[in-house]
Design a protein that fits this description.
Elements (H helix, E strand, L loop, with lengths): L9 E4 L5 H12 L3 E6 L3 H13 L4 E5 L5 H15 L4 E4 L14 H28 L3 E5 L12 H21 L4 E7 L9 H10 L8 H13 L8 E4 L7
């Protein structure tokens, strides 16, 4: 069906219970994909997402996983393959974000950010790679405008996302021609808990005169999941032009 380009495909979305990850999971399901999501603490929200995906006529599964743990990741990916039978699309969305002054940052804060935002994506990708290769699949990482620009109040976050952008290029070369690897880098995204003052300030600075939405990011992920396979190793900044200011 032309409006369901992912019919017959299966996707694994990490951190798919809430926020941007939830919208990505639902967008892929609307395009016809069966979807497994991982969650760490959001069991209730994960159950709601699964019910919504199933209502679309797609198979779905919610799998508890701590992407910082090699053992947990190994079990979660194995469960996803067992339930869905294959993985055509991996979306490494799970991540953490926190402000911290660089001159007062602890080693625990630094290491924790990289464990979730960079090492986690590496671990999930490594475990899913055999299934992705068998399916001639696609990987989409969730980077950040902060991985391109210098955010001094979020230096550990920016560094972890810059590393993920670099990892995108390395994986694209290493896994070609079997698997494509690309990255979506959001700018400021309006969410339910976004500070209203900051949201207004960023919208005013953005050339498109608004902030991004979860649907904007999910649409970019869907693009990489369905576009020509000749496109790999790219980081697409989805920020309404904020990075141009």
């Amino acid at each position: 069906m032309p409006d369901q380009p992912l019919l017959g495909k299966s996707a694994l979305v990490t951190g798919g219970a809430r926020r941007i990850g939830r919208e990505i999971a639902l967008t892929l399901a609307r395009a016809g994909a069966d979807v497994a999501i991982t969650y760490r603490k959001s069991r209730g929200e994960a159950t709601e997402v699964i019910e919504q995906i199933q209502a679309l006529g797609c198979r779905a599964a919610a799998i508890e996983c701590d992407i910082r743990s090699e053992e947990s990741v190994r079990g979660a990916v194995a469960a996803a393959v067992a339930i869905l039978g294959r993985i055509d699309i991996l979306v490494n969305n799970a991540a953490i974000f926190e402000p911290a002054p660089l001159d007062a940052m602890t080693v625990e804060q630094w290491d924790g950010m990289f464990a979730s935002n960079t090492r986690g994506a590496f671990l999930v990708t490594r475990e899913a790679l055999p299934a992705l290769r068998a399916a001639q699949g696609r990987i989409v990482h969730l980077g950040s405008l902060g991985g391109i620009e210098a955010w001094p109040g979020h230096a550990h976050y920016s560094a972890s996302k810059a590393a993920l952008h670099s990892l995108t290029r390395s994986m694209a070369k290493a896994f070609a021609p079997d698997v494509t690897v690309n990255c979506v880098a959001p700018g400021f995204i309006d969410m339910e808990d976004s500070p209203k003052e900051a949201a207004a300030r960023f919208a005013a600075r953005t050339p498109m005169q608004r902030n991004g939405t979860a649907a904007d990011i999910a649409g970019a992920v869907l693009y990489f999941a369905t576009c020509t396979r000749f496109l790999t190793g790219q980081t697409l900044t989805v920020d309404g032009g904020l990075g141009l200011v």
